[in-house]
Amino acid sequence: MKRKILIILIITFFTYYKFLFNGFFFEDSHIFRNGYEKTLIKNFYSGYDHTYEEGEFAYRPLIKIIYVVEKIFFKKNIILFHLTSLIIHLINIYLSYLVLKKFKIPERLLFFSILIFALHPVNTEAVIWHSALPDLISYIFLILIIISYLNFYNT
Fold it and tell me: Hey, CA dihedral for 14, 20, 26, 30, is it positive or negative?
């Protein structure tokens, strides 16, 4: 089955590969603003985030840290920003595989379930729209919580 999950990851990578070379979409351009990382650091504890309309507040420290690190290391290389989202999606696929494997689902059903999750159009927005990175990150934590619970329950 490990070979099959690798095949799914490769298929997913090449399915989304063409989006690596697209520009930013919608409000993704806020990442390119000069001084954006300084504003995030300055307003880190206040909850103010430029990704929201004026007057809206959200305190997402992990996402702010990721945006700052990306901006510092990637500068204006759009490909690397999109690659980050794609890699996180690939991690989510593998973690989903681990969860379903714990339920002892038959291999064929497991393979097709993960393939559907990997390539389903509902995930496209989260992968190609960099401002949807919080969705991908929150899914990682959700799956890790489920894995932790299942490990605890099985001991």
Answer: positive
